Amino acid sequence: MGTYSHSRLSTFEQCPRKYKFKYVERFDTGDRVSVESFLGKIVHQALERLYELVTYGKIWSEEELLKFYDDSWEKQKPIELVIRDDDLNEDHFRDRGRKMLSDYYQAYHPFDQDRTVALERNVVFNLDDDGKYRIRGIIDRLAVKPDGTLVIYDYKTARTIQSQVNLDEDRQLALYQIAVKQLWPDRDKIELVWHYLAIPEKRTSERADVDLDKLVDETIRLIREIEQARIDDNFPTKETRLCSWCEYMSFCPAKIHQLQADEQAGELRDDEIVKAIDRLVEIKEYFAALVEEEQTIKKQLADYAKLNGLTVLSGTNKNVNIRFWSQYRPRFAKLTEGKAEEKKRFVDFLVETEMIDQVFSYNAQGFNSFVTKAKYNPAYRDRLFEMIEHVDCAPTVTIRNKTG
């Protein structure tokens, strides 16, 4: 039985057929990314970076926060950003994200309401004693109030807000509370907080142990229902108003005929199919060549900048900023090289020194933050550096407006 997440469970509740597309058949929807999803991702990254710097005593200005957001948007923008409202364009959504961050910044600066202890924290935990039913998730931010209360934060970028009744029954943060209680069993008070950034409003909720016990029973029943659906191959379609936003609509047996009828006027004839496919291949190859050329140019500029000790190069109307950076990583990072034993030795070291909870994840930012704090502790510094390595990373090349 696999490990489930709140989003995976919600997908089954929303539409079993969508669940089958996504988690059983693993349909590839290509490079299409909805603008709402992309906006949420970039806003979350900006808030994560903001609070990461706060933990080091660095408070960004509002302009610095928005600059990070804009740069991230440009660097990570997908090839096909799907916008379903014909009256809106990319700039509308980008500006909406900027306003969310500005409103949040002005409301909570200088961000000293509590102390952040984890950002984008990956959690995996058991619902039962045997470990048969497991849940995974990512906590946006975990913090401690001055009175010792642990706070689980969730940042929402949707334009709708849940009622208090629904929030008091919300599964996602309550599941995260179970994870937090397993990690820190000595903490008696835990608060759940939702920031609806587009409104903007903050909502809170608390759960008693009896509420969590009920949630565990309900979640296990739902997982059993999903597992039985897999055995029976029974994933019926559930049509709702959300169908129009479903990335699998063009494959859905309940929608294919409707789509064919709607598009019949522009339908390709049999003799046009081959031409259309050939043209699609040409377009894909063209964009692939552009991406390859972009990477080549970036490497040439980075090599030139490094050779001449520069970080900014000037073009006709724009500048190019080049950042050279490096990172720490465990020596077992490439397990394909047979380093499983090194991984075990490293984890045993973390357990022995009671640092296991400090290493939230093995992503670059999280691990570098851990090493930066740990390397100054003489009690275990030497042993730590026997098991990690410092590597140069590919330079970051960013196009910027000229100033001055």
Broad shape: globular
Determine the fraction of residues in helical runs and give it as a percent range. 40-55%
Provide the residue-averaged pLDDT.
85
**If classified by CATH, what would the architecture of the largest domain be?**
3-Layer(aba) Sandwich
Structural class: alpha/beta
Number of separate domains: 3
Low-confidence stretches: none
Rg is 24 Å
Q: How many E strands?
A: 13
Instruction: Give the CATH level 1 class of the largest domain.
Output: Alpha Beta
The major sheet is characterized as: 6 strands, mixed
CATH domain fold name of the largest domain? Trna Endonuclease, Chain: A, domain 1
Q: Beta-sheet strand percentage?
A: 15-25%
Helix count equals 13
Termini separation (Å)? 60 Å
Secondary-structure element series: EHHEHHEHEEEHHEEHHHEEEHHHEE
Q: Any chance you could write out the topology, listing elements then pairs?
A:
Blueprint: E1 4-5, H1 6-14, H2 16-24, E2 32-34, H3 35-55, H4 62-76, E3 80-82, H5 90-108, E4 115-126, E5 134-144, E6 150-156, H6 164-167, H7 172-183, E7 190-196, E8 201-205, H8 209-232, H9 256-262, H10 270-308, E9 312-314, E10 318-323, E11 326-330, H11 340-352, H12 364-374, H13 381-386, E12 388-392, E13 396-401
Parallel strand pairs: 1-5, 2-3, 6-7
Antiparallel strand pairs: 4-5, 5-6, 7-8, 9-10, 10-13, 11-12
Helix pairs in contact: 1-2, 3-4, 3-5, 4-5
